[in-house]
Write a structure and sequence with these properties.
- The chain contains 14 helices and 13 strands.
- With 411 residues, it is α+β, with helices and mostly antiparallel strands.
- The chain has two domains: 180 residues, 3-Layer(aba) Sandwich (Aminopeptidase); 145 residues, Aminopeptidase.
- Strands 1, 2, 3, 4, 5, 6, 7, 8, 9, 10, 11, 12 and 13 form a 13-stranded mixed sheet that branches.
- The N and C termini lie far apart (61 Å).
- The relative contact order is 0.12.
- Keywords: Transferase.
- GO terms for molecular function: transferase activity.
- It comes from Nitrosomonas halophila.
- InterPro entries: Acyl_CoA_acyltransferase, BioF2-like_GNAT_dom.
- This is Acetyltransferase (GNAT) domain-containing protein.
């Protein structure tokens, strides 16, 4: 690849910054030729960048666009014209929610500019040098009901340190954590399944082997599982996965889960056409009992959604499905499985590495959002103190267990 390919397209129309002026520009204001060239440069940039994720891929972001959803891409070039920064945002309707124990008491509708992990910078480029101008530009352009959101921000990353410590950012934005910090669990997949098992704790190895043996040797159960990757398989996978999802506490209590609707069918079909979709279904006695849905992008598998039929919980079908998926990914030569956001006991037991992350609202100090941010900050502080009190007395897990049982027995 020549050095000219890394330089800014259409320099006559969009001259690169000079001196210390690290200007960020919106690709929406590039003409069609310059935009196409910029996207080609970005593909090279993302392919070689060690921190790039699926949510940095413009093709993936645009595949999720639909009604009221769009993508905003900002790029920054060094004084010599080389690409030095890239900041993609997925723009969608959302809300600032006043929640107590996970239940929304009041919501203020907004449009949210969401970014996963953070902007990508070229090696040697200082976040403190280039990011202030990005957030200054965004502050000037955001509307009265538009905010920023950092999803899965690694706390010890350059971006994580910037948003938590940079004094200039706090002058224009109110930084509000969304939930507590968590450990994002991953599996660095070895060359064989036996190697993976040997890397787990002794108790986990024992549990997995016992669970597999008892399940696979049960003569009362006929077992099969399928891997779905092709566009024509989406219409088969979705209704079966939703049939399982509808029985889970996530659906009945939280309204979450996989849905067989036009938007999901469209998104999964596009993903399959691009070779990203890789979803799994476990079938016992001719009935779907567990599913895993995710995407294989580059050499990383992103575990998007999971669910199992609570009537089959004693057979540990959720664990069985996890193990079948891990074995399949190892056989395929995938390097990494990413459990994505949040943490739980199952992720801890199956993973072999992690990083500390947190989600953040960056709310512009403008009316009415600036005033609302102060109220939300106070409300969240009280809510967290109440949650800590309940957890300290061992009530949180009991409440969660009761709610799960009620939600899965609603029939």
């Amino acid at each position: 690849m020549s050095l000219q390919r890394s330089k800014r397209p259409d320099a006559a129309s969009h001259p690169p910054p000079t001196g210390e002026d690290w200007a960020w520009q919106d690709l929406d204001f590039f003409d069609s030729t310059a935009r196409s060239e910029a996207l080609l440069v970005l593909k090279d940039f993302l392919r070689d960048h060690p921190e790039a994720t699926m949510d940095h891929d413009p093709d993936w972001l645009h595949s999720k666009c639909g009604q009221d959803k769009s993508v905003k891409i900002f790029v920054c070039h060094a004084p010599d014209g080389r690409l030095s920064g890239y900041a993609p945002f997925f723009v969608h309707p959302s809300s600032l929610s006043f929640e107590l124990f996970g239940i929304a008491l009041w919501e203020f509708p907004i449009r949210r500019y969401s970014m996963t992990a953070g902007p990508l910078l070229s090696p040697g480029v200082s976040a403190g040098k280039v990011l202030p101008s990005l957030f200054d530009h965004l502050w000037q352009t955001l509307g009265r009901r538009e905010t920023l959101f950092g999803l899965g921000v690694e706390l010890d990353s350059a971006f994580g340190r910037f948003i938590q410590q940079h004094p200039g950012l706090r002058e224009k934005y109110q930084l509000l954590p969304s939930g507590k910090a968590y450990r994002r669990r991953l599996i660095a997949l070895p060359a064989s399944f036996d190697q993976y098992i040997q890397g787990l704790s002794a108790n986990t190895r024992k549990d997995i082997r016992r669970t597999l043996r008892q399940f696979e040797q049960d003569s009362a159960i006929t077992v099969s599982y399928r891997v779905y990757t092709a566009p024509e398989e989406v219409l088969e996978f979705l209704p079966l996965a939703q049939a399982v999802s509808d029985k889970t506490y996530q659906r009945n209590l939280l309204g979450l889960g996989i849905c067989d609707n036009p938007e999901t069918r469209r998104n999964l079909t596009i993903a399959a056409e691009n070779g990203w979709m890789r979803s799994y279904l476990l079938i016992c006695n001719q009935q779907p009992v567990a599913f895993q849905h995710g995407y294989l992008h580059g050499n990383t598998y992103y575990a998007e959604q999971t669910g199992y039929d609570p009537a089959w919980a004693r057979k540990s079908v959720g664990t069985i499905m996890q193990i079948y998926r891990i074995r399949d990914l190892i056989d395929k030569g995938v390097a990494r499985l990413d459990f994505l956001y949040g943490d739980n006991e199952k992720k801890r037991s199956l993973s072999n590495t992690y990083r500390e992350e947190r989600n953040f609202h960056l709310i512009p100090r403008k009316f009415p959002l600036g005033l609302l941010a102060y109220g939300l900050h106070g409300f969240n502080t009280v809510s967290e103190l109440m949650g800590d009190f309940i957890e300290r007395w061992g009530l949180k897990s009991k409440i969660r267990r009761i709610l799960r049982q009620r939600s899965t027995n609603q029939d």
